[in-house]
Prior knowledge:
Blueprint: H1 2-9, H2 15-32, H3 36-40, H4 52-71, H5 81-93, H6 95-98, H7 107-119
Amino acid sequence: ITTAVLAAIAEHEDPWDQLEAAAIAHANALLASGDLPVIVSPFFSDSLASLRGELVAQRDHYDKIIASIIDKLDLPPEIDRRIFRLHFLGALNWLPTWYRPNSGMTATEIGRQLVVMLRR
């Protein structure tokens, strides 16, 4: 997910465009593999116990990438950027729980729609 997001945001300078590119890349990467939902979950299975430190470090690195985009957004002053970030990532990471391929929307459309909703 990190690799896909970094490549996607590199193509944009506007922070809202970067956030949309990040959402699209995140959604597509997450839904492309059945293994990733287990890794992005905050509840690591016992089978991943030996990797926990590395997974947390990767998650924290990714979190900083998203936070740096959000820090540049022209949000109203009453919007808490930490809550905004957690809401954004939570919505994306919940996709494998409810997404159905025959739902009429692609991962790209869902990622784009998420940012449209946050931007308004």
